[in-house]
TrEMBL record:
Domain Sigma-54 factor interaction as annotated: residue spans: 139-367
Organism: Chelatococcus albus
First-listed, main subcellular location of the protein, grouped into a coarse class: cytoplasm
Record keywords, A-Z: Activator, ATP-binding, Cytoplasm, DNA-binding, Nitrogen fixation, Nucleotide-binding, Phosphoprotein, Repressor, Transcription, Transcription regulation, Two-component regulatory system
Cell compartments where the protein resides: Cytoplasm
PROSITE patterns named among the record's database cross-references: RESPONSE_REGULATORY, SIGMA54_INTERACT_1, SIGMA54_INTERACT_2, SIGMA54_INTERACT_3, SIGMA54_INTERACT_4
Pfam families: AAA_lid_14, HTH_8, Response_reg, Sigma54_activat
Record PTM 4-aspartylphosphate, positions in chain: D54
Keyword flag Zinc: no
UniProt keyword RNA-binding, yes or no: no
Free-text function comment from the UniProt entry: Member of the two-component regulatory system NtrB/NtrC, which controls expression of the nitrogen-regulated (ntr) genes in response to nitrogen limitation. Phosphorylated NtrC binds directly to DNA and stimulates the formation of open promoter-sigma54-RNA polymerase complexes.
Domain of life of the organism encoding this protein: Bacteria
Protein name listed in UniProt: DNA-binding transcriptional regulator NtrC
Response regulatory domain: residues covered: 5-119
């Protein structure tokens, strides 16, 4: 039988009654109140082994009370509940030291389970304020860059707006799309993902919209498309920049009209899905190259969301490492930790493969090394053979390149002209090529100076106002991070 004293604060008497009954049946001693002042009095007097509180109280806000409670009783578990079901509320709760956040309405069995976990946790192991248990949240990181993402997600949760997620490969675009679905209005519906780059060009329309029996050779039966599978939920279009032009035209028509027909079908089918798209390409450049429809871009880019590469949020590396070590431990691999030297080396690494590369490294460390503590020399051995120049050390800047920039650009242009075969590229090639080189150059300078525009302008040899104008014209996002 469970044991412990629970303090409940909620101004709704009916909710207090339900919680009292559920927790009492589970064997807990329960006291409840409808105001924050009484809750604070009980806590200050040393009463209770756990607190459950609503955010909005008649005489105050729980977010103002939580820091005071953590100050006088830092090990007291705090569970926050709220009808304001947004990602931001969850983040604010965790920032103020809550053990768990439960959006109303919630399952009483889930509440009892959370209470049990909180009270069974050994004292002294409570997460510090602002440091939620990493494995319990869908997105990991407390850097300024990730806080911006969290704030954007919180605003998007109660909407059905179409979102375009951009970012390098491995930054977690599908994870963000899943968070938007799992914490949003359509969380009870299906989440369906489709990778445009992984499907043969001639099958994309069938994959998206389905096909009728006999629609083409090999179509032996009717097949349901991803739009139909995602009905009432979310359709995630990954690598949207790789969608062929003819499929773009059909997708645009669906977004405009809210209906589609299967391949080989004639009857329009109404659709009710939320669209989230993602790409690691610069779609504005693809538009200039004639590879992506501008009208489709504007239909998809209702809310742009850029995920920062890991090198722009290196302070998140320790949290991510702990998160992945916890994951692999639950999968049966030995428990590991990093020493200070290893942590610093990982924070200085450039991570061309971003978070996915870090996860693979952590799994490799857990599987291959017998020692519990991973040291700096082990990290050197794992990283340097694969990509010595990827570590952001001073010597790396002078490492000889196997191919000069001019040769690299020439090779790129040969490939680009080859895509058009006997046709010429669209007009404006000179400015497109300059923009393609200029954008990553400025982005790298900003990343190297941690977003300091004065230092970046000096590094590039530009006037500061000129740099600001180029950042605005190129639509670059500046993330300022402390050293």
């Amino acid at each position: 039988m469970a044991s412990g004293s629970i303090l409940i604060a909620d101004d709704d008497a009916a909710i207090r009654t339900v919680l009292n009954q559920a927790l009492s049946r589970a064997g807990y001693e329960v006291r409840s109140t409808g105001n924050a002042a009484t809750l604070w009095q009980w806590v200050a007097q040393g009463e209770g082994d756990l607190v459950i509180t609503d955010v909005v109280m008649p005489d105050g806000n729980a977010f103002d009370l939580l820091p005071r409670i953590k100050k006088v009783r830092p090990e007291l578990p705090l569970i926050v509940m709220s009808a304001q079901n947004t990602f931001m509320t969850a983040i604010r709760a965790s920032e103020r030291g809550a053990y768990e956040y439960l959006p109303k309405p919630f399952d009483l069995k889930e509440l009892v389970a959370v209470v049990g976990r909180a009270l069974s946790r050994p004292r002294g192991q409570a997460p510090a304020a602002g440091q939620p248990e990493v494995e319990e949240i869908p997105l990991v990181g407390r850097s300024p860059a990730m806080q911006e993402i969290y704030r954007a997600l919180a605003r998007l949760m109660p909407t059905d707006l179409t979102v375009m997620i951009t970012g390098e490969s491995g930054t977690g675009k599908e994870l963000v799309a899943r968070a938007l679905h799992d914490y949003g209005k359509r969380r009870n519906g299906p989440f369906v993902a489709i990778n445009m780059a992984a499907i043969p060009r001639d099958l994309i329309e069938s994959e998206l919209f389905g096909h009728e029996k006999g629609a083409f050779t090999g179509a032996a039966a009717r097949s349901v498309g991803r739009f139909e599978q995602a009905e009432g939920g979310t359709l995630f279009l990954d690598e949207i920049g790789d969608m062929p032009m003819e499929a773009q035209t059909r997708l645009l028509r669906v977004l405009q009209q809210g209906e589609y027909t299967t391949v080989g079908g004639r009857t329009p089918i109404k659709t009710n899905v939320r669209i989230i798209a993602a790409t690691n390409k610069d779609l504005r450049l693809s538009i200039q190259q004639g590879l992506f429809r501008e009208d489709l871009f504007f239909r998809l880019n209702v809310v742009p969301l850029r995920l920062p590469p890991l090198r722009e949020r290196s302070e998140d590396v320790p949290d991510l490492v702990r998160h992945f070590f916890n994951l692999v431990e639950r999968e049966g691999l030995p428990r590991k930790q990093l020493d200070a030297d290893a942590t610093e080396k990982l924070k200085r690494y450039r991570w061309p493969g971003n978070v996915r590369e870090l996860e693979n490294l952590v799994r490799r460390l857990a599987a291959l090394y017998p020692q519990e503590t991973i040291t700096g020399p082990i990290i050197d051995a794992e990283l340097e053979p694969a990509s010595p120049a990827a570590v952001a050390e001073p010597a790396a800047a002078t490492a000889p390149a196997t191919e000069g920039l001019s040769e690299s650009v020439e090779r790129h242009l040969l490939s680009y002209f080859g895509e058009f075969k006997d046709r010429l590229p669209p007009p404006g090639l000179y400015h497109r090529i300059l923009r393609e080189v200029e954008a990553p150059l400025i982005a790298m300078a900003l990343a190297a100076t941690r977003g300091n525009q004065i230092k970046a302008a000096e590094l590039l040899g530009l006037n500061r106002n000129t740099l600001r104008k180029k950042i605005r014209d190129l639509d670059l996002q500046v993330i300022r991070t402390p050293r």
